[in-house]
Fold this protein.
Amino acid sequence: MDSQKSISEIIEGVQHPAISLSLKELGIVKSYDISGNAVSIVMAFPALNIPILDMLIQNVRKPLEDAGVQVHIEKTVMTQQELQTFLAKEQSAWKGM
């Protein structure tokens, strides 16, 4: 894959399995930096021990790797403000798993 736009579309299109919003909209995909055919992604979580952490990471990683992109993911914990924003969006868009 050689298009930064295509890489961005993949990242921004990954949906949360239980919330009707993308991981980017929820603030879980906090930022990303595309360099050629590689991308570094910062993913922020409410806590690093959430049960679906690995699933969320794989939901971002797999479509990128399937498209031939090298992926590096850094995990971090949401700030208090990010967490409050996430919880409000979660409550309004919850669909269940």
Remarks:
- The beta strands are 29-35, 38-45, 70-77.
